[in-house]
Design brief:
The protein is an alpha/beta fold. It folds into 2 domains: 11-147, Rossmann fold, CATH 3.40.50; 180-355 and 414-473, Dihydrodipicolinate Reductase, domain 2, CATH 3.30.360. The chain has helices at 21-36, 56-70, 78-85, 101-107, 125-134, 154-165, 183-194, 224-249, 258-270, 294-298, 398-402, 412-422, 431-449, 466-473, and strands spanning 11-16, 45-50, 88-92, 113-118, 143-146, 173-175, 207-215, 280-285, 308-313, 325-330, 337-344, 362-368, 372-380, 389-397, 456-458. A 9-stranded mixed β-sheet has the order 14-13-12-11-7-10-9-8-15, sandwiched between helices. Strands 3-2-1-4-5-6 form a 6-stranded parallel β-sheet. The chain is globular, with a radius of gyration of 24 Å. The mean pLDDT is 93. Bound molecules: 6-O-phosphono-beta-D-glucopyranose (BG6). Residues 148, 216, 235 line the site of 6-O-phosphono-beta-D-glucopyranose.
Length: 484
């Protein structure tokens, strides 16, 4: 199945922080892929802006090198990359001073869709927003894109929202959570609201519990300074896992439109109960034969920051009362594997007797890698010898079902950047949504920061601390295997 590519209107996209890691690894390669797919019109331009003293030529050469390493597009040649970089320009800009702004203004004189991507730390958001106005770069239709971390608690998130709101209307602000741009995450909504099959069963009457796992094999070296101040709760749960939980738990929105979807997500966050200390496990990876410990990675002799967290959440509303949501995420785990598992209840009565065993339907949505959906169903074990039951998967791999052989699933940033240009905020977080997520997160973080509780050590390559297994065993349940 070949996906349809609908070109967008001409645009100017200015990337602040264009020489940084995110721009090099994600934003520019994603733009290249859209260019290569034919989605970027002739009149589309990308303007890099950063402190580094590049000329437009040296910036193009810098991007070209990065693309050869990170773009990984099947069939793309160096000539294709070279054609893309002709669309790039560069301005040396001082976010806190005056350098470069007049030149940037001179470059942005065209009457086309204009977006500014703040691929910089949040401490620069306000300076950039102010200067965009001061130098007449922001009109009523200008859009700004801001990256996470959007604050480190409710108070700082409110300040950031207020700083942006002083210069831009909410409809102009695109807060990125790149998990929302992942194909499979969007598929969650398609599966839930495009099929009649699941919705009648999608509640606490039929669902025993839901597990959300985002497991990574990487450690935190290279970004230890940021990570050690954040930890897994702020870095992953407050945003990415929370978004997954919202999409799984929300009521059907009336339309697939920005505010309709975001209103429903917000209701879920607001219905989340506080997490009790006994429903929470925090871990930190130790050393292994070939990897450094967390402490070595962050270059600290002591730290209680968690690189793993598991918790049990409850949503108090009619649909979900009594169905727990178990969330876990961590670095240096067994495999890179993200999955949402919807575990249905046992049949009310087994007509096959005790010896047939206990069987459950599990709907597993694999976010990455090997994106797809698997539904575990119970069937009769083939052969004579009575009615023995086994569970088998009905498996749909998205790559096989949807892509021409070998075609990669699009990167989240491809979709999100094009949505900015199209002016569609559905997959971006609204101010009140971010604040509500922090309002739930803050007391959880305070529960250990207040008393200096230790993070439990776990073995790299494992499934996290043993206590995380017990969190579910206590409830007579168990985590799904972290599989590749
Ligand atoms: C980022 C976190 O937002 O998401 C990282 O800051 C994490 O710590 C990353 O590794 C995970 O993203 P993905 O797309 O690789 O699952």
């Amino acid at each position: 199945m070949v996906s349809r590519v609908i070109p967008v209107e001409d645009f100017d996209l200015v990337i602040f922080g264009a020489t940084g890691d995110l721009a090099q690894r994600k934003i520019l390669p994603s733009l290249f892929r859209r260019f290569h797919a034919g989605q970027m019109p002739e009149g589309a331009r990308v303007i890099g802006a950063a402190r580094s003293a590049h000329s437009p030529e040296s910036f193009r050469a810098f991007v070209l090198e990065g693309l050869c390493e990170f773009a990984q597009v099947k069939g793309a040649t160096r000539a294709d990359y070279a054609a893309f970089v002709t669309r790039l320009d560069y301005v040396t800009v001082d976010a806190r001073g005056t350098e470069g702004w007049e030149r940037l203004r001179a470059l942005c004189q065209r009457a086309v869709t204009r977006a500014f991507y703040f691929s910089v730390g949040p401490s620069l958001f306000e300076d950039l927003a102010q200067r965009l106005h001061l130098y007449g770069l922001a009109g009523a239709e200008t859009r700004i894109v801001v990256e996470k971390p959007f604050g480190r608690d409710l108070a700082s998130a409110k300040l950031l929202n207020a700083a942006l709101a002083a210069h831009f209307e909410e409809r102009q602000i695109y807060r990125i959570d790149h998990y929302l741009g992942k194909e499979t995450v969007q598929n969650l909504m398609a599966v839930r609201f495009g099929n009649m099959l699941f919705e009648p069963l999608w509640n606490s009457q039929y669902i025993d519990h839901i597990q959300i796992t985002v497991a990574e094999t990487v450690g935190v070296s290279g970004r230890g300074e940021y990570y050690n101040r954040a930890g897994a709760m702020r870095d992953m749960v407050q945003n990415h896992l929370m978004q997954l939980l919202c999409l799984i738990a929300m009521e059907p929105p009336a339309r697939f439109e920005p505010d309709a979807v975001r209103d429903e997500k917000l209701k879920v966050i607001r219905a989340l109960e506080p997490v009790a200390p006994q429903d929470l496990v925090r871990g930190q990876y130790g050393p292994s034969a070939d990897t450094q410990s967390y402490l070595q990675d962050v270059g600290a002799s002591e730290s209680q920051t968690e690189s793993f967290i598991a918790l049990k959440a409850h949503i108090s509303n009619w649909r979900w009362a009594g169905t727990p949501f178990y969330l876990r995420t961590g670095k240096r785990l067994k495999h890179r594997a993200s999955e949402i598992a919807v575990v249905f209840k046992d049949t009310p009565h087994s007509i096959f007797g005790e010896e047939a065993g206990r069987h459950r339907n599990i709907l597993s949505i694999r976010l990455q890698p090997n994106e797809g959906i698997e539904l575990g169903v119970t069937i009769k074990e083939p052969g004579p010898g009575g009615m023995r039951l086994i569970d088998v998967p009905l498996d749909m791999s998205f790559a096989e079902a949807l892509g021409p052989e070998g075609e990669a699933v699009p990167d989240a940033y491809e979709r999100l950047i094009m949505d900015v240009i199209r002016g569609n905020q559905t997959l971006f977080m609204r101010d009140d949504e971010v604040e509500a997520a922090w309002r739930w997160t803050d007391p959880i973080v305070q529960s250990w920061e207040g008393c200096g509780a230790a993070a439990l050590s776990y073995v790299p390559g494992s499934a996290g601390p043993e206590e995380a297994l017990r969190l579910m065993q206590r409830d007579g349940r168990r985590w799904r295997e972290i599989r590749e």
